[in-house]
Structures are given as C-alpha cells and as structure tokens.
Design goal:
heterodimer, A: mainly alpha, MetI-like fold, 17 helices, 73% helix, flat, disordered N terminus, B: mainly alpha, 2 domains, 15 helices, globular
C-alpha cells in the first residue's frame, strides 16, 4: 500500500541510470554484508556440486570426477534413509503439535490476569528458562533423568514409582526432546502473542462487557480471533521448517541406546561429513534435505496465500 | 494506551459474575502450577550445588540444601579451561556483536529505502539464504580454504549476516523513521550517508540494542560453530567446555585425585551442578535489566516486513 502511495507521488518516470546514480551511496551501506554473504553463503552453494561428484579433498571441488546421482541413490537405499526421515518427522511434528498451541494458551492466560504483580512474576518466571543455553539444558536433562540419582527419579520414588532409564530408551526420546523444549521456550514464545493481544482495542472488551460477556467468552470471541493473523504467520514458519530440526539439542542428547529414534537428518549429515569424512554423501543428504525444506516452505506459503491475505513473501 | 485499558478494566470490575470467579480460580491455580514447574528445576540445581554430594545422590536434597558447603565451587576455580572458555565467549560475544551491527544495520537501512535502485534484487539476495544454503560441508571447505579454521575470526564474521535481523531492522526503519524527515534533510543538503549516520542511527537505538542483544546471547549459547571450526583448546568457547563436562562426562581428573571412587563420582555430579550455576548465573542476572529490550525485539520482529 505504501508503495502505491509512493508511486503516485512521483508520476514522472526517472531513467534507470539516474536512479542507480542516486542510490550510489546506499550501496556502500549494503556492501559489507553483501560481501560476507557472497563469500560464506553464496559461494558454498556452488560447493553443493560435490553432492554429484566423487569428492576427495586432495582433488578439490572442480577436479573431482562427476558421479551423477550415485550418492543420492546410496542414501535412498541405505537403511538410514527411512530411519532419519521418520525420526526427523516424528520429532518435528510432535514439536509443532505441542509447542505451537501452548504459547498461545499461555498468552491468553496472561492476558486475563488482572493482578498485575502476579502477572509480572508469571511472565518473568516463564521467560527465564529461555536463557539457559542448549548445552546446559541438555546437561540438566541428563542429570535430572538419571535413573539412580536424578531428582525426577527421586521425586517419583516418593510416590513409589521407579523411574526407568529414560535416556536409554529409544521410545522416550521424542517426548523428552519436546517437553523439555516446552519448559524452556513456552514463555518466551508467548511474548509475541502477548504483544499482539496488548494491541487489541480496549473498547472491544468494554463493549463485550456491556453486553454481559464473561471472561471466557471474551477470550474465545475477542482474543483468539485477534491472535489468528500472528498465529498463521508463525505456523507457516514452523510448517516450512518441519524437516529441519535444530541439530544442537538432538546431537547432545543422543547416545547409542536411543539412536534408533534420535538419529535425524542433520545429525546424520554431521556424522557422515565431519566424523566419517564421507563428504559427497553428506553433501547429498544435506542438499536433499534443503530441497525438501524449500518445497515445504513454498507450498505452505502458497496454500496460506490462497486461503487468506496472510503470507510471508 | 495500556493505562487507558487498565482504567476501562477497573471500571468494569465492579461486579464479577460467578462464571468469572470460577474462571479466575482456574486461571490462577494453573498459573501457580506453571510457575512452580518453571522455577523448581533451577532452584534444585542451586541447592544441589551447595549441598553435600552424598546427600544429593542419596536423594536427601529436594526442597532445601543439606550441609551447606562450597567445595564444588572451590574446585571449579582451579579448573582453568572453564575460565579460558569464559574469556573466549566474552571476546566472541563482543566482537560478534560489533560485526553483526556493522553488517546488518546499514544493509537493513538501505533496503528500507524505497528509492534504492535494485531493491527487489537485494531483498531477494538476502532472503534466499533463509531457504537455501550450501550446507555444512561446502561451507566448511570455504572457511578452510580461506584459512579461517582455528581462528578467532571464524566465530565472529562468516555467520554474522542474519537475514532475520535485517528484516526486523528494515521493518523498524520503514515504520519508525518518517520519509518526511529525509526529505527535509535532503533539502538542507544532507546526503544519504550523513543522513544515515547522523539522523537515522541516533533514532534507532531500540532496534540496535535489540540486535546487539540477540547476537550477544546467540554467541553466548552457541557451540555448533565452535565444534566444527575450532580445534585449538585455547580458542574454544564456554559452551564447548560445558559440553565436555556436562554431556561428554569428561572427568576433571586432576581435581579428583585421592578420592574414593564413589565419592569421586558423587563429586563429579556436584561439580556439574556448580558448573551450571556458574555458567548460567551471569546471563540470568543480566536478564531483568535487559528484558525490556528483548520484549521490544520480539515485537519489532513480529511486524511483517
């Protein structure tokens, strides 16, 4: 809309060259980041060709012989293909189902609190875990879940329940990952929604109250509709990244006992590439994952474009 | 506006229906439970770190510390690797923040200008890496070819252009710096660069501090880049040291000499609790002071570009 207005202000069309000259000094501002991005992000894109080559470090990227789709086939045919994709999807979809709605619920709760002091305490304590680093978080998980000495085993022991070795059981891994994620980030992720709610016109609530609406009704009929646009954008972002779970936490929590559910694409790429030095295979898997992500994001965006006015790009 | 809202709400508060009372009861009960769930793990770590190791492993420490002592902390002080890590992290955080600002803020400003020729091209240029990257191995090789492996620079330059930061800052410039201001400045003969440095930057403290904070916290928390690009133990940041202690169970062997095996194991756990406290306390203590900026940041980020 703003752009239309701008176009209307300058009806006389200026030539491309004059516009280029006028922007001259602005390019200076872009230059530093442009170079860094070119070198460290765009230049490696050319390196994805090693996915199609028999790459050896001695020969370099250009001189290594072409191998066609050999490494893609190797990955698709390996037993790790199904496992890594399944694990990535399970953890990711589980995460979305749990960590997407909870911050919204928290924001709705927060918005209904009229005891300001309590609200403040509630907000500060729910944000706090966000500042624990991933490494420390994983250290805490390992300490807490230790079957013999961990605090959780001791607390359940009070009720006579003996906690199994959760870190050693493959079935528990996705739940551990997702629910610790909730603990750590639910408060933080709610800030966005709290902000969106704070910009709701107070007269809406006032009118609703005049009409005898209860708090619950106001929440359902005012707050939730108000959050929908923000939630849609957040959902697009999340859905688009369904195949890319952060490497860091999974890698730290992984062990040989739970690897049948914890080996995801990104940890496998890392292990193949930098641990086993199978560069081409690793690059092929990485590229495959990247393309899937891209397709996912574009299609989710397309769908949301069709459905509503809210979209990303 | 917040005040206005509050006024409306107090005016409305006069009579509370029964339905609303039940609602409030559940609201505050659930909220209290959430607060306890959030705080207890952190509280437990603190009390465990100052209790006697035998009591902690026997499960006698749950709600308050037993036999308060600071042995674990005393041992940590002698563990030099931890302090080297601390020092490195601070260096990376400071330098990383500086570079992040140098790279992202000016670019965001230029992109916010509707008269920038090629604006569409540059916007796409910065957006593409959000969706597609060369991947781990090719990036590693570029870093290696440039001789940046095992240097300080790999931690602060290559990954400091962040599209998301640029979008956030650009949105801020579009929404908060009026175009009229620039027109007025240009009439007074102010060029693009001096306008940016003398007028835009001083008006953009909010977005600058938000991005600085994001970068600093990101540096504080990250270990992935260090894991991949650093080998030299003199360069590794705090998080990697923490990983070795907390996750890889690398025992701090020289710290445990002479102790009986069980006692050594119990002590190792205790040291973990102390390490968690020592490494997380600074950022948690800083948090109340900078919270304002973080919240601001989330709101800036929420505005669609």
């Amino acid at each position: 809309m703003a752009e239309k207005k701008n176009a209307a202000v300058q009806p006389n069309k200026v030539s491309a060259w004059t516009r280029l000259k006028r922007s001259g000094t602005l390019y200076l501002l872009i230059l530093p980041s442009f170079i860094v991005m070119l070198v460290f992000t765009y230049y490696p894109m050319y390196g994805v060709t090693i996915a199609f080559k028999d790459f050896t470090p001695a020969m370099g990227i250009t001189n290594s012989p072409w191998a066609g789709l050999k490494y893609f086939k190797q990955y698709f045919n390996s037993y790790q293909f199904g496992t890594t994709i399944k694990n990535t999807l399970v953890i990711s979809i589980y995460s979305i189902v749990v960590t997407f709605p909870l911050p919204i619920a928290l924001a709705l709760m927060c918005n209904q609190m009229k005891a300001l002091k309590f609200k403040k305490i509630f907000q500060v304590t729910t944000y706090l875990p966000h500042f624990i680093s991933t490494v420390v978080m994983c250290g805490m998980i390992l300490l807490f879940l230790s079957p013999s000495q961990g605090i959780i085993a001791q607390l359940t022991g009070l009720f006579g329940y003996k906690l199994p070795n959760l870190m050693g059981s493959a079935g528990a891994f996705p739940s551990i990952y997702v629910w610790t994620e909730v603990w750590q980030h639910v408060g933080w992720d709610s800030i966005l929604y709290i902000a969106a709610l704070s910009s709701v016109d107070p007269s809406l609530y006032e009118a609703a109250t005049m009409d005898g609406a209860s708090k619950w009704q106001k929440m359902i009929h005012i707050d939730i509709p108000m959050l929908l646009p923000t939630a849609t954008i957040m959902f697009i972002l999340r859905a688009g990244s369904v195949m890319s779970i952060g490497f860091e936490k999974v890698y730290l929590l992984q062990n040989t006992l739970n690897s049948s559910t914890s080996e995801i694409i990104s940890t496998y790429v890392y292990k193949m590439g930098l641990v086993s030095s199978q560069y081409s295979l690793s690059a092929a898997i990485g590229l495959f994952n990247n393309i899937v992500n891209l397709i996912l994001l574009l299609s989710v965006n397309y769908i949301s474009n069709k459905m509503s006015e809210t979209s990303l790009v | 506006m917040a005040k206005e809202k509050q006024l409306v709400q107090t005016a409305v508060k006069v009579k509370k229906s029964k339905e609303d009372k039940i609602f409030d009861f559940f609201l505050y009960t659930i909220a209290t439970i959430i607060i306890i769930i959030m705080l207890y793990p952190m509280y437990f770590i603190i009390i465990a770190s100052i209790s006697s190791p035998t009591d902690v492993s026997a499960g006698n420490v749950m709600f308050y510390p037993k036999e308060i002592n600071f042995r674990a902390y005393a041992q940590l002080f002698e563990y030099t690797q931890l302090w080297t890590g601390y020092k490195n992290t601070i260096i990376y955080a400071v330098l990383g923040t500086i570079f992040s600002l140098i790279f992202n803020i000016p670019a965001a400003y230029a992109l916010s200008r509707k008269d920038l020729f090629g604006r569409k091209f540059f916007t796409i240029f910065y957006l593409v890496p959000m969706f597609f990257t060369g991947g781990l191995i090719p990036t590693y090789m570029v870093v290696k070819d440039l001789g940046l492996l095992d240097t300080l620079w790999v931690m602060v330059i290559p990954f400091s252009v962040v599209t998301y930061y640029i979008i956030v800052a650009r949105t801020f410039f579009v929404n908060s710096i009026p175009d009229d201001l620039r027109e007025a400045a240009q009439l007074d003969g102010c060029g693009n660069l001096s306008y940016f440095f003398k007028i835009v930057l001083p008006l953009s403290k909010a977005v600058i501090s938000v991005i600085a904070l994001w970068t600093a916290v990101g540096q504080w928390n990250s270990y992935f880049n260090a894991l991949i690009y650093l080998r030299d133990s003199e360069l590794i940041p705090l998080q990697l040291v923490l990983r070795n202690i907390l996750v890889s169970n690398q025992t701090i062997s020289n710290m445990l000499t002479g102790a009986a095996a069980t006692e050594a194991r119990e002590m190792a756990d205790l040291i973990k609790y102390a390490v968690i406290v020592v490494s997380s306390a600074p950022i948690m203590c800083m948090y109340p002071f900078v919270q304002k900026y973080f919240n601001q940041g989330v709101m800036l980020g929420s505005v669609k570009g």
